Structure formats: C-alpha cells, structure tokens
What does this fold into?
Amino acid sequence: MRARTVLPLVLLLNACVPASQHDVATRANFADSSLPPMKSFASSVPSAPVRSNNDLALDFIELSFQMESGRRLPVLTRFETPITVRVTGNPTSTLGPDLSRLISRLRSEARIDISQTTAPDANITIQAVSRAEIRNVLPQAACFVAPNVSSLAEYSKARRKPQTNWTLLQKRERLSIFLPNDSSPQEVRDCLHEELAQALGPLNDLYRLPDSVFNDDNVHTVLTGFDMLILRTYYDPALRSGMSRGQVAAALPSILARTNPRGVNKPARYATRTPREWSKAVQTALGRSISFEGRTASANEAIRIATAMGWQDHRRAFAHYAMGRVMQTTDPALAHRHYIEAERYYANTPGTTLHRAYVATQLSAYAITRGDGGTALRLIAPHINTAKASENAALLSTLLLLRSEALELENRHAEARSVRLDSIGWARYGFGPDWAVRAKLREIASLNPLKR
It folds into this structure.
C-alpha cells in the first residue's frame, strides 16, 4: 500500500492539504445550496519542465526504485497492456468529469494508452467510500492505492500479505485506488491525481522536486508538466517491467533525448538529497499530534539542518514556512519574519511560483490585520493567475477573499463585493459544503480590523 495522510499544510487556518506517510501510494455532492454556483476548471495549462536530462535521470531513478520509507524496489513495475479504469462505490458528482479530464491529459501529454470502462476486470478500480471507511483501515490516510486488490474489503483482508507488498511486485495488472466521497471536490480531485499517477508510475516522493505532485510538501494539487514527462518516460517502449535499476539507468539517456530534447545540453544542477531527519522534522512541525514546544523544536531542527546543508532552495524556504505556521497564533510578528524568509528563498528558486502564492496568503493576511490594504493588494496581485493556472480553487478563493478585505480597507466597497462574490464559486469547489465556505468567509473577514 502507499497512502496520502492527513497531516495538514494550511492556507491561513483551516484550508488543508494533506501530507504523506511511508509505505502506503496516496490523497461530495454539493448541488443544493443557497450560495452561488460552484466553479470548476475547464482546461489545463501545465508548464513544460526546464530540466537537464542528467537531473531528470537521477530524479526518475530515485522516484522509481525506492519508497518513501527508504525501502528499495528491486525492479521497475508498470502496466504492460492498455490500461482500463473503472469507478465503483458512491462517487461524488465531480469525480466523473475530473477523471475524464485527467485521463485525457494522460493520453495526450504522457502518451499512455488508458481509457475508462465499466467492466469488472478493469486494471484500475477507483472505489469511492467515506473517510471513516478509509480511516478504519488506515487511520492517518486521506486516500491510498494498493496492488492486487479490487475493493476496500479485499484490501482489508490482504493488507499484511505478500499480495499487497509493492516490493514483491513484478508487474502491475490489477490495483485499486480508494478515494473519499465526503470531502470537498478539490480534495477528491487532488487524491485522484496523486493516486492515479502513483498507480501508473513512481511510488516515491522527493522534497527536492519543486514542481511536482511527487513531493511531500503537497503544494501542487494536479499533475504538472514534470509529472507528465516522468510518466511518459515510465511508459516509453524502451522500458519494461522487471528491468533493474542499472538497466533503466542505461536506457534513460536515449529515452530523455526523445522526450525532453531541450534538456540534452542543459547543465545539471545535481540537487543534494534530502536527509530523512529534515523530512521528519518538517512533518512533525506541521503536525497536530504533539505539543507546541515539540512543533517549535522540530521547526528549529528543520531550519538548522537546511542551514547546515547549505541549501538556498525551496527546502530552506519550506523550513521557514513551517516555523511561520507554528508561531502564527502565538507570535504573529515572528511568524511574519519567517514567511518573509520563505519568500526570499522561494523567489531565488525556479519553479516555485505556486509556493510563493501560498506565502502571499500569509503575508497579505498579516498586512490586512494591520489595516494596510494597499500592501495586501500588491502582495496578492501577482498570484491570482498562478492559482488559476495551477487549478487550485482553495488557494484561488482564499486569495480573492483576501483581496476583497483589502479593497474594503481601501474604501473600494463595490469592487470588494464583486470580488467576494467571485470567490464563493471557487470556494465551493475548494472547500465543499456551505458551512465550510461560510466558515472560510468568516475567517478571512475576521482579519479586517474594521470588522472585529
């Protein structure tokens, strides 16, 4: 099994994006409402990765031959026939359209022969069940994928048997993805993207990848251009199930010359590997199961390790972001300084525009609490289009609600009302039921000193 767990990385206070756990590949209907209609994204505009093929080869090997726990996978495994996908259980109204769009992208961008079916012998079964049913099997999981099963009941019986052990797999023929059917449309879609990607390809996550869903920071919520390139490489005719690490490494230069010709002569960056101690410290700092003191110590440890490693990239930024999250409720000024540090390191790291949008929510919220609408508007403006391009409705609605409050502070009340109305449709996709949307509206309105 390979799972996506529920450790939160948050937008302000309660817009959660779950984080991941070891050894398990992981991430409702809201038709009746008094709020404006739900909005959704109609098209994808993924950016093509700008990577050296040397770097891509190293990333591919580490993603494909290791699990998050550090356990090695002895051979490459993938589907060797055209792939069929079916949906069972009680799916949400948004799952079907989101799955159709994702399969279309996998066919066109990753060149994978994949299609939907209703046949019971589908290669991949997506079963929509309640969060309670998922957590009854894996308490920390938001969603997960498992090999050689076709239902949650079958997995429950086989979870500790060789049948569901990824390290014993020789090729992929049948597996299941378990998604929640009582979460927000965006959380269901995010689970779908990550779990289907890992059902098809790599099982590992790497913090060093800034522009990928194969990253425990959970910043990206839909498959990126990098992810599609990795999956296209995974299903290149020159590879096959059963190949060893060395055999795959030998084949990659010629494969990547075809799939990423711009990377042939691009200099390699050779990003350092991420110590497990740093990963553990960050996850602990962002968790909720330990004391404030413990979270503070873990955030300090993440910053210490990042400094000792000499990192100047998004991992150094993420350590400061984690400290900002820890300190936000007890020392907002100190949290603000850490968010500024996070923005500084993100700004110097290619491929982190979405990360910077998350930081902008924190920096602009701080400006609004101080009554500085002009600064908040300047901070928010560059990131609206980033949230749209990344298809992140929760982030987009948060940015729009912050913009509305900033406009109120600037006495631009008609604009504020218009922006707030626009935000609600996105909030319904990002946060789900009316009570969650209204809670987000109240939460961000409470930042405005004119409304306290």
